[in-house]
Amino acid sequence: MPPKITTELLRQLRQAMKNSKYITEPIQAYIVPSGDAHQSEYIAPCDCRREFISGFTGSAGTAIITEKHAAIWTDGRYFLQAAQQMDKNWTLMKMGLKETPTQEDWLLSVLPEGSKVGVDPWIIPADQWKHMSKALTSAGHSLVPVQENLIDPFWTDRSARPSSPLIVLGLNYTGMTWQDKITSLRTKMADRKITWFVITALDEIAWLFNLRGADIEYNPVFFAYAIIGRSSIRLFINGDRMADPAVKEHLQLNSSSKPEFEVQVLPYESILTELQGVCGGLGPKEKVWISDKASFALTETIPKIHRSLTPSTPICLAKAVKNATEIEGMRRAHIKDAVALCELFAWLDKEVPKGTVTEISSADKAEEFRRQQKDFVDLSFPTISAVGPNGAIIHYRPLPETNRTLSLNELYLIDSGAQFKDGTTDVTRTVHFGTPTAYEKECFTYVLKGHIAVSAAVFPNGTKGHLLDSFARSALWESGLDYLHGTGHGVGCFLNVHEGPCGISYKTFADEPLEAGMIVSDEPGFYEDRSFGIRIENVVLVVPAKPKYNYRNRGSLTFEPLTLVPIQVKMMNTDMLTQKERDWVDEYHKQCREVVGAELERQGRHAALQWLIRETQPIA
Amino acid sequence: MPPKITTELLRQLRQAMKNSKYITEPIQAYIVPSGDAHQSEYIAPCDCRREFISGFTGSAGTAIITEKHAAIWTDGRYFLQAAQQMDKNWTLMKMGLKETPTQEDWLLSVLPEGSKVGVDPWIIPADQWKHMSKALTSAGHSLVPVQENLIDPFWTDRSARPSSPLIVLGLNYTGMTWQDKITSLRTKMADRKITWFVITALDEIAWLFNLRGADIEYNPVFFAYAIIGRSSIRLFINGDRMADPAVKEHLQLNSSSKPEFEVQVLPYESILTELQGVCGGLGPKEKVWISDKASFALTETIPKIHRSLTPSTPICLAKAVKNATEIEGMRRAHIKDAVALCELFAWLDKEVPKGTVTEISSADKAEEFRRQQKDFVDLSFPTISAVGPNGAIIHYRPLPETNRTLSLNELYLIDSGAQFKDGTTDVTRTVHFGTPTAYEKECFTYVLKGHIAVSAAVFPNGTKGHLLDSFARSALWESGLDYLHGTGHGVGCFLNVHEGPCGISYKTFADEPLEAGMIVSDEPGFYEDRSFGIRIENVVLVVPAKPKYNYRNRGSLTFEPLTLVPIQVKMMNTDMLTQKERDWVDEYHKQCREVVGAELERQGRHAALQWLIRETQPIA
């Protein structure tokens, strides 16, 4: 694909930067972040403004346009892609390289004295605003909020904001009514002397109200805001979605419910004026809770003296610790997912030797098998289906022009997952259909050792996930190898496949401590550029452990795999495994055989069952 | 010891808080931090104001006095001690317990509306000021700097600020002239477009000028400030120390040196006015570098627009990476230290069965043996000599009233170190003179496994120390055990035994990456309250490692023990060790025998040599 021609678009944007229709004084630079107004990781097409103006489609990247320059900052995953997708109007700023200036430093170097830099206050998170504003102010410039987005006026074919029908989740899926969730939230608000809580993250709103949507691909969320008071509930949501009788009944919109659970439904766009109203009526000591990652527009509306910023909102924390019903749902979802993957691998074993299976057709087949399972809703992210060298591209997605054929000679990595009504899955397996080289097996075994070291780790209650990250790397490090991504992320329950506030990564320190009921991924890897990629990923549940002692009564935790898909023994150099590691593999495979085997039997999937039995034999 | 009676002292302080001689408007609270004006960990007697006003002698703790209350915040190490040392005027605030309010929250709960809270701006670090000021301001109060310390006027027997003679260190100890250090610093200043660098940490000044002092016990530093410009050097130092001909010659105070190395010597107290002068003459884009932990008084003097705060100063970083001469000095110091400890342990083996050795006499004996070694200057910290239950008190220091006798029945933990002119040492060994219980051996072996896991770890260049912390705990965690302190700290070279900016701890995230030449301690432990304490500590040097592969040419690192003192095999349950761990122990002991054995031989210390040979036999 040739790069997008952006000359005319940039001309129009630069005109808007001087147009008194949008701004009181001309601005000398305009920042286009890549997010939406809800800090979503995945965004809807109508929010892809950075992509529209630059042509660069990657998931992360910020554009800055001045009168003379246009530049994009993105990270190592996207250097090649960004360079291919952007025309000569754009300068690519490769983040992470020493010679690359930060956005602030670059602005200071190109701006004329006393410049104004504009940004859409709905899209820039308050913490980023603060950082950028400080840097600009200290050099005599200023950061100004431009209320109307400057790209929208000339984005003529911009699609409408999605407004998909809502799914109501019953107690059998959620384990807790939305009223009980609100009550629990209000208790936390009272503890902290908080009068109002402004919810901006889409998955938090979906979780709180036991509703799901389909406004963003792969993410079962819907565009909304909410303001929860001590005795009032305001839900800001567009469209006729509230007309659905099931939703009406669920939220008790007609019935005479208790006044503290009466949901006031307001237009999505009215959040700002309503929040202004709320803030206007605040008593001297009243506080409003909001995430420190919320938009500058909403954050700034709350007077500083009434503002209580929090890195992990109480809903984010409550959502992360799954209740018994959610855990059972996640277990069911992972068994169904394993059934689909056993079918896929059995099918691949048969078809790959014929030379007819490609990355794309394999991914399609995986989706086909998943769709056959009960309560399937969607995939949970675009399938990474990667043969040989494509496996070394960590966020690879097969396209017709890169599509390789699965063969007996190259490694195959498939990272895929689904949204079921009872849970979200995410699993990666790396397999060989012929005979792997000794080096491939060696590297695979280091990764496996790391996977087991995390999965079998016992650690005190209250340990933060980032303290476990090195366990996953130790075997690789000892041989001089490593991988340049985190080891695990939180996983939602029929919600976003990536969620906070816990995870396992060397990159964060502000993660919340792990506790029983949290669910994270365990996915170390190794990538040999231009050759192959290896990743072994299970979703695991944090569970209490019962070691010999119990120091200071703190209690201990460990992980229990929810993913139950065999790990290819052919890829292991079993001589490199300790007895403990061999036992772990055998025990894991025994569980796969018993639990998934029973379900395959029940569903009458005999070929897949044969494959499962063959792949779960003890490693001798 | 009975608690200190503080009624009269508090009365006088509360009077001062309203006395217009010191303050323009009365203050409703006064904060007494525990530090000095240089953020020193250990402080001189004249700076122990918090101890003077409260009676509490611990190394960490902040006092806050209001019109009606007096409270002290300290951490778990000191709960018991603080409770014993303070009278009923004081409330002990146990940090780390959930029910304990923070200093800010407590102030907000007790202060009348619109209160003023005072603090000595020379003692409070700028980052703490900012934090406290923000909390107070947001509740309608204010934090105000009180220029004259309010305790000094009635602290009648306050000692003078020490002014010990200086020691000049030659190239044979430092490996680099102070002029070359200044040149290197100026290069870094030029890179960052910095015009002035204000040095406030005492060890940084000592390192930069290749001088040592004895103003603070155990820390070979001297009270001073320095301001380094692109072509000027100002040293702020009191007393007649500059009259010493050796110092004069070293700093070339008389000789006509190059103008950019001319040292202008100014009175210690004149730092503020000189810095004001410097700031008054700054051009519009000129920047002044200062540590973000420097005092509020100095930080505030630099106008915000010219201020460049840094968490790790360039000197802190340069000092952490030891050069070849410093490394050789550290090696020599550790061999001498091992000689002294071999003497001690040989002597203890003979004397303990007689029942005449106490914690204090053993510590004294260790000091006596160290003093016999060449270039001995002082201990590097108060010796922790602890029998049985005293070993469970992590920062124990034997006192006549707690002094236990070493016996054949209890564990003995000794954590000690020295300042030699060529290096600083810090070593902990835990030994049994009779027959340890199976449980004591089990716990010791977990700690040993953790010690080895860190010491033998291979990790990529650029890894931060906090990522290695869990390696030290893994074996303990697996059995439900843990220890509540970090695993390692940076160690100076004939400087502070604790230094930044690197270390190995779960508590920090802002540590600087480890690099070859850095020196840290490796000291996991286990403490059974009221029973025993175990710690195994070596000082280790970061060295390049050469594993099989070299991913992305990053290179790998590992540790090499500088401490060469046998680890008691009797305490090990060798069945719990892997072959790799046994090999590590044998190889370590072989090195102790060869290197320290040769020195014991040379010094004619035959009994100690016999002990060393006996204690370093392979573990079979």
UniProtKB/TrEMBL annotation, chains A, B:
Keywords: Hydrolase, Metal-binding. Residues 557-619 form the Peptidase M24 C-terminal domain. Residues 328-542 form the Peptidase M24 domain. Residues 11-148 form the Creatinase N-terminal domain. It comes from the Eukaryota. It holds the Pfam family Creatinase_N. Signal peptide: none annotated. CDD domains: APP. PANTHER family: XAA-PRO AMINOPEPTIDASE 1. Belongs to the peptidase M24B family. This is Xaa-Pro aminopeptidase 1-like isoform X1. It comes from Huso huso.
